[in-house]
Write a structure and sequence with these properties.
The structure is a homotrimer of 279-residue chains. Chain A is α/β, with parallel strands linked by helices and 279 residues long. The relative contact order of chain A is 0.16. In chain A, β6 and β7 form a beta hairpin. Chain A has one domain: UDP-N-acetylmuramoyl-L-alanine:D-glutamate ligase, CATH 3.40.1190. The first copy, chain A, has helices spanning 4-21, 34-44, 54-63, 78-91, 107-116, 128-137, 162-172, 207-219, 224-245, 249-262, 265-269, and strands at residues 24-28, 47-50, 66-70, 96-99, 123-127, 175-179, 183-186, 190-194, 273-277. A nine-stranded mixed β-sheet of chain A has the order 2-1-3-4-5-6-7-8-9, with helices on both faces. Chains in contact: A-B, A-C, B-C. At the A-B interface, α5 and α10 of A face α2, β2, α3 and α10 of B.
Amino acid sequence: MYTKQSLRQEMIRAVQQVKQINPLAGSITNSVTINLVANAQLAAGGSAAMVYLPDEGEFLAGAGQATYINVGTLLPVYAETLPLTAKTLHENKKPWVLDPVAIGIGSLRTELLLTFKHYKPTIIRGNASEIIALAGLWALSGGTEVSRVRGVDSTDEVLAAQEAAIHLARFSGGAVAVSGETDLITDGKQVITSFGGSHFFEKITGAGCALAGVMAVYATAATPLVAALLGSAAFNLAGKRAEAKSNGPGSFQTNFLDELYLASPEDIADNPYEMEEIE
Amino acid sequence: MYTKQSLRQEMIRAVQQVKQINPLAGSITNSVTINLVANAQLAAGGSAAMVYLPDEGEFLAGAGQATYINVGTLLPVYAETLPLTAKTLHENKKPWVLDPVAIGIGSLRTELLLTFKHYKPTIIRGNASEIIALAGLWALSGGTEVSRVRGVDSTDEVLAAQEAAIHLARFSGGAVAVSGETDLITDGKQVITSFGGSHFFEKITGAGCALAGVMAVYATAATPLVAALLGSAAFNLAGKRAEAKSNGPGSFQTNFLDELYLASPEDIADNPYEMEEIE
Amino acid sequence: MYTKQSLRQEMIRAVQQVKQINPLAGSITNSVTINLVANAQLAAGGSAAMVYLPDEGEFLAGAGQATYINVGTLLPVYAETLPLTAKTLHENKKPWVLDPVAIGIGSLRTELLLTFKHYKPTIIRGNASEIIALAGLWALSGGTEVSRVRGVDSTDEVLAAQEAAIHLARFSGGAVAVSGETDLITDGKQVITSFGGSHFFEKITGAGCALAGVMAVYATAATPLVAALLGSAAFNLAGKRAEAKSNGPGSFQTNFLDELYLASPEDIADNPYEMEEIE
C-alpha cells in the first residue's frame, strides 16, 4: 500500500528515470491519433516506435521496455499481430497497456479483446463506458454486456465504472485507469482520483490514446498503479496549464505538448489527487 | 428553393443543433489527413470515429448520423469495406459525403467510384478536376473521361466544373461542392458561391478532406445543400480569420482549428455568399 | 565537383524552381508521420500524394517528378507495392529517396531493403545507425551486419557512418545523407557537413521522415548531392529559427513548418556548411 509520501517519492523517481533513459515504449495503435501518441511519448521523455506486422509486433514486445496496444482502426493483419504481440509480452513479463477503444464495434475487436483476457494487460485505460464494457466482456463484476459506446466519447460517468475498474484490476493484477472529468486509477486495493485537465481534451482527438501511450512510457519505470497515476497527473497538469494559454483546440494541442514536455517530476507528483483504500 | 432569409435561419438552426448534440459522423478516410478530419469534426461540434474493416464500416453506417467516405490511401480491404458501407448508408437513407480524391489513380479507386454511383452520395465534395472527372466516370454531362488530376491539387477552375456539379447533383438528388478559391455549391436547382478562405489552404494537407468531414457533421442536421454550404462557410470564415493571425502554414493550421471551434452559428450563416437559381 | 560558388548558384536555382513549379513528389511512407511529411513537402514548395497499393505506387512513380519511400509501419501489401514502385522508378530513371527507418526489425523490411539494392535509390537518408546497417545489409564497406537500432532514434554518431555513407553513395551513384546533430551529405566524391537544427528535432516524431520527403521535392530540381544538401540546409535553418521562438516540442513543430515555408532560396543556400573532397 502506498502512502502519499511513498507515492510522491516513487513518482518523482520514475519521472526522473524516464527523462534520463528515454525508454522505448512501442505501440500498435490507431492511425487517427498515432502521431499524437508518439509526440506525447517523446514529450514525456520516452521513445516511440509503431508497427503493424506480426513479427514486428513480436520484436517490439521483446525489444521495448513496455508496449501500448490500442484497438482503434483495426487492420486485417491485426488478427495475427495483436494476439502474438500480447502473448509475447505476457510470456516475457513485459508491461503493456491496453486501450479498448470502440469496444463493441465489429467482430475482430471483440475477438481480440477476449483474447487479451489471457494475457492480462498491466494497465487498462479507457473511458467509463469502455471499462464497463470490457469488464462485461470478461464476465467480471461491475461490467455490462453492452457499452453505451458512441464513437470514442465518454457517455458514462467515471464513478459508475469504479466497480468494473476494481474487478478488472484484481483480475489482471495490474492497474486500471478510467478517464473522465476526474480520472480514477485503481490497482484493486487503492483507488486514486486525479484532478485537473481541460475541457479541450474532449475537443481534440487522441487525448485518451496519448495518455495510454504515456502510461506505457511510465510503466517502464514504475508499478502499474504509479505509472497510471503518473500518466493522469502529467496530463491533468499539462492540460490545465495549456488551457490557460489557449484560444481553442488547435492552440490547446500545441500548448499541451509544450506543457507535457516542460512538466518537472515534482510538478507531476504534486498534481492534486485523492487516495482511498478499498475493502 | 431557399431564399437568403430562409437559408440563414436554417444555417443557424443546424449549427446550433450540431453544437448541442455533438452528432456522430463516422469516417473511412485517408491516413494522411485522418487526424485533421477528426479534429475539424470535433471543432465544428460533431463526434468522430474512423474505421477500416467491412463490418465496422457497416456498423458505423448504421450507428452514425452521417458518414464520410474519402478514397485516398486505399487499402486492399476497402474493396469490401467501402461498397458494403455505402450500400448500408443508401439502404438506411443515411446521409453520406463522398470525397473522390485522386480519382483516376489505380484500378480499385475507379471500381469503387463506379460502385458509388448506385448508392448516390448525399454530398460530393472535390476540387474542380475531381468533380469533372467523377461526372465523366458516371457518364454525366459536364464530365470528361480523364481529369487533369495532379496529386490532390486543383488544376481546373471552379467555374469549369459548374456543369458537372449540377448534373452530379441532379443525378444523386443531393448536393455537390466544388472547392477552390471560391467554393461552388449546388443541388441542381440553386448554385451558391461561398467566399473567403485562405491561400494557406493550399499549403497544408487535408483542408479539403476536413471540409468534407465537417459537411458530414452538418449533414446530420440539415439538407444536403445547407450542409455543404455550412461546411464551406465555416471553413471560409475560419480560414480568413486564421490567415490574419498566422505567419505560415504551421500556425495557420493551429489557428484554423481554433477559429473553426470559435465560429458562432451567426458568424457562419453571415459569411458572404451569392446564390442564383438555374434552369 | 562543386565549388562553394557553383553550389550556391545551384541551390538558389533549385529552390526557386521548386517554389515556382510545385513539383509532385509522391510518397509511400509510414502512418506515424505521414501528415508531417506532406505538410513539410508543401511548405518547401512541392506537392504531395501518398498511396499504399501496387498499381498506385507504379502510377505515382511514373506521374511524379520524384518519389519518397519510407519503410516504417509496413503493411502486408507493401510486399508487392514497394518493389514494383522502386522498379518503375529505376526503369524510368526517376529520382527517389529511400529512408531505411527501423532497418533490422522484421523479415519484410529486410527483404524489401535487400530488393532496393537493385533499384539504386537516388538519395538515401537515415540516422547513423541506419546508414551503417544498410551498408552492412548491402555488403558494402563501412557497414555492420546489425545496427544498434533502438526504435527510430539515432544511437551511433554521424561521423561513424561516414565510411558507410561514402560507399553507399558510390554504389548507388547518388547521394547519402546522415542525419544527426550535424548532418553529413556525400555523393562519394565530396563530403558536406551541414550545421544548425534544433534539439527539438529529437523531441518530435517525423523530423527525419519529413526531411527525406523534402529531399525528394528538391530531387525534382537538382542533382542528388544538391537536393540532399538543400533538404538538410532548409531543415537546419528552419529548425534553428523555430527553436528560438518555441517553448516546447508542440510550438516547435508549428513554428518549424512556418519557418520552412518562409525560408528564401538565399537563406537556404547560405545556411552554414563545410565541404571537403575525398580520396
